[in-house]
Write a structure and sequence with these properties.
The chain is mainly alpha-helical. It folds into three domains: about 60 residues; about 90 residues, no CATH class; about 130 residues, no CATH class. Strands 1-2-4-3 form a four-stranded mixed beta sheet, with helices on one face. Strand 3 and strand 4 form a beta hairpin. Helix 1 runs parallel beside helix 3.
Length: about 350
């Protein structure tokens, strides 16, 4: 029974529209069956495997909800992989003093610059609420201040409650954060002066892969048999469709598949780390460039600056479904260019005829 379910999982994984998704599901199924090989309750484990099989069947039958759930799992938006991607951004050594004296477990959570930038940005969170940095570091009510009116009327806030509030707020915000797949270093900064956390996916270039999958394939002009000059001036890269691009979800169009990848790109932030010693002229240039690149009012970056580096959260791609996008135009052919030039020359030589047509 278990072997049949395992084979069905591998078969359904082979129908997925991208090699990365196929490898992710196959590896997940392989690890699951190896982990529960000697389980004392095999019936329960087989039932869970059947549930996963039904989800894969829904994906291959064209269910949008099931397909987006699989994409979020495969790229670390939900599930165990999300916390593995967030782990490099957590502080390994506590830097804040304990709230309760001589009790080490009462230390408030420490926010690294990258984690603080992710929590304080609306780009990298599942909610649009933007929380100021001062409220993140100190989420306590006014009663926590002994000199406040609330503390005088209701009494001081318990130190244990303050510790629990810090912990709950930290867990709540980290659950809402989308971890970045890549952490980039600005060209002006060096590796020694600006250390960055590594996610382990830098060699795979997942953002570039999703960007290419989200591009619409432009129509390719075929050369005419009678005229060898009827060729495009240059063949764009996005017109070359790989074998992975030709794979589709049953009952769904290629446009639907591209929009799902663009929807996923809207949940993947990008972190850029640079030296905080940037000159004023460079900052003004970068600000102007960002204003030109922003497509919508929602595409606002969040920047956190400390003593050694500056961390900014940006959109991972301009193809994210949250942003407006103008697809590239088709490349003009030599024959079409000749017709346009001829029409321009005729209009310039006989302006009266062009006025009569109008």
């Amino acid at each position: 029974m278990a072997l049949r379910v395992y084979r069905d999982l591998l078969r359904q994984a082979g129908y997925l529209p991208h090699p990365y998704l196929q490898a992710f599901v196959k590896g997940k199924a392989r690890d699951y069956f190896r982990r529960h090989r000697n389980s004392p309750k095999p019936a329960k484990q087989i039932e869970n495997a059947k549930k996963e099989l039904r989800r894969l069947q829904k994906v291959n039958n064209g269910s949008q909800f099931a397909f987006m759930r699989l994409l979020r799992q495969a790229f670390g938006r939900i599930g165990r992989m999300k916390w593995e991607l967030l782990k490099p951004h957590f502080a390994t050594v506590p830097e804040r003093d304990p709230i309760i004296p001589k009790v080490e477990s009462s230390r408030p959570p420490t926010y690294t610059p990258t984690l603080l930038a992710l929590v304080s940005s609306s780009i990298s969170k599942s909610t649009d609420r933007v929380i100021p940095t001062k409220d993140i570091l100190n989420p306590l009510p006014a009663r926590a201040d002994p000199a406040s009116d609330e503390a005088r009327l209701l009494g001081p806030l318990s130190l244990r409650r303050q510790k629990n509030m810090h912990r709950r707020f930290f867990l709540e915000q980290t659950r809402r954060v989308y971890p970045p797949l890549e952490v980039l270093r600005s060209p002006s900064s060096t590796e020694a002066s600006t250390p960055i956390p590594q996610t382990g996916l830098e060699t795979l270039s997942p953002i570039a892969m999703l960007h290419s999958l989200s591009l619409p394939a432009a129509p390719i002009s075929r050369p005419s048999r009678s005229d060898d000059t009827d060729r495009p001036l240059e063949e764009p890269e996005y017109a070359v469709i790989s074998a992975a691009r030709k794979m589709r979800v049953h009952g769904r169009s290629k446009r639907w598949l591209r929009r799902r990848y663009r929807e996923l790109l809207g949940q993947i932030p990008k972190i850029v780390v640079e030296d905080s010693t940037t000159t004023g002229e460079q900052e003004r240039k970068s600000t102007k460039q960002k204003k030109r690149e922003d497509r919508t009012p929602e595409a606002k970056e969040t920047t956190i600056t400390d003593s050694s580096r500056k961390v900014s959260v940006q959109w991972s791609s301009k193809l994210a479904l949250n942003l407006s996008y103008t697809p590239p135009l088709r490349t003009i052919t030599h024959k079409e260019l000749a017709w346009i030039q001829k029409a321009t020359e005729l209009t310039a030589s006989n302006p009266a005829a062009s006025r009569r047509k109008k």
